[in-house]
UniProtKB/TrEMBL annotation:
It comes from Aquabacterium commune. This is HlyD family secretion protein. Pfam families: BSH_RND, HH_MFP_RND. Residues 40-230 form the Multidrug resistance protein MdtA-like barrel-sandwich hybrid domain. PANTHER family: 36 KDA ANTIGEN-RELATED, MEMBRANE PROTEIN. Residues 105-168 form the Multidrug resistance protein MdtA-like alpha-helical hairpin domain. Residues 1-25 form the signal peptide. SUPFAM superfamilies: HlyD-like secretion proteins. Gene3D superfamilies: 2.40.30.170, 2.40.50.100, Helix hairpin bin (1.10.287.470). Residues 70-170 form a coiled coil. Keywords: Coiled coil, Signal. InterPro entries: MdtA-like_BSH, MdtA-like_HH. One of its GO terms (cellular component) is plasma membrane.
Length: 335
């Protein structure tokens, strides 16, 4: 047998030690995943120019906190007009309760014809809106407005009929009922404009962090247009795929450690869901090797510590306990 020289023996020994050190210092196994969160899209309920944006990107908001306000000068003017009509109707009702003079029949008939014409016009507008909303040419808010206008016109027709009937019969109680109907119609007008004015001020539906602004101050927002998005507080979670042989280690309720770039130490997360179906299958009988290739979508809620940010989409690694990790390599056998 040929003997090896001393330099050759030293080289072989160094190589063996190096390989041994490599196998002993293998990096810990991590399952790849990514951060996900619940995000609410806030859309404009009505159209208008952005008068004031009350929040900034990255700002924490509470549920009910004002997000933005749309320009509302026209609605405020309409509200003042509706309130004036309401006051006039209430004054007329009060005046009739004291005993007012009878209205002339011809004047009341003319008023009835006028209100019927208004009702016909309102019904025509409603039919047009209902046909156009199916083609997305008008918004649902416009259809609701037209329906309210029909209701107001119907109330005005009933008011005119009641006044004409009261004048013919000469019954003071009927005149008072007509005045009460007019007051109710005026109140409906106030409620309609007040509701529309309320839609100009949008509050946060949920608490969280403002992620992105799509419309700035001074820009026009159409009905249904996305204005901003809010990331829900406490909704950060990690989604990752668990191999079939490691699935018992990642059951709901178990705690795992998640490595996030930029964080000094791993972040803890509690598993909340494990998919019942594997993500990879083959139309054949599964051997032991093929069964281990199956993976299951798993979700875990993150407990993000202070100073460690993890926005949605961030890639992460879920650490696997060393004793349960599959062996990826073996030391070479001695010949």
């Amino acid at each position: 047998m040929k003997l090896l020289s001393i330099p050759t023996l030293l080289a072989v020994s160094a190589t063996a030690l190096l390989l041994s050190g490599c196998f002993e210092s293998q990096p810990e196994l991590q399952l790849p995943g990514y951060i996900e969160a619940d995000i609410t899209t806030v859309a404009s309920p009505v159209s208008g120019t952005m008068a004031r944006m009350a929040v900034k990107e990255g700002q924490n908001v509470q549920a009910g906190e004002t997000l933005y306000v749309l320009e509302s000068q026209q609605e405020q003017a309409r509200l003042a007009e509706a309130q004036a009509k309401k006051a006039q109707a209430e004054a007329q009702t009060k005046n009739l309760s004291k005993g007012a003079r009878q209205a002339e029949l011809e004047s009341l008939r003319a008023k009835l014809r006028y209100t019927k014409a208004q009702l016909a016009q309102a019904e025509s507008n409603l039919k047009k809106s209902e046909s156009l909303v199916k083609k997305n040419f008008v918004s649902e808010a416009q259809v609701d407005t037209d329906r309210t206008n029909v209701a107001l016109a119907q109330a005005q027709v009933e008011e005119a009929r009641a006044a004409l009937r009261a004048a013919k019969e000469g019954a003071r109680t009927d005149e008072q009922a007509a005045a009460a109907a007019q007051a109710s119609a005026a109140q409906a007008g106030v409620d309609q404009v007040a509701w529309l004015l309320q839609q100009k001020k949008v509050n946060a539906p949920v608490g969280g962090v403002v992620q992105e602004l799509y419309i700035r101050q001074g820009e026009f927002s159409a009905t249904g247009a996305t204005v901003l998005t809010i990331l829900h507080s406490g909704s950060l979670r990690v989604r990752f795929f668990v191999p079939n042989d490691l699935r018992p280690q990642f059951m709901p309720g178990a705690t795992v450690n998640v490595a996030i770039s930029g964080c000094d130490k791993p972040v803890t997360a509690r598993i909340s869901r494990v998919s019942a179906r594997p993500e990879y299958t083959q139309p054949m009988m599964f051997s032991q090797e093929l069964r281990d290739r199956l993976s299951f979508l798993t979700e875990a809620r993150l407990d993000t510590p202070a100073g460690c940010t993890a926005p949605p989409g961030t890639p992460v690694g879920v650490k696997v306990v060393a004793s349960n990790a599959p062996q990826t390599s073996q030391a070479p056998k001695a010949s």
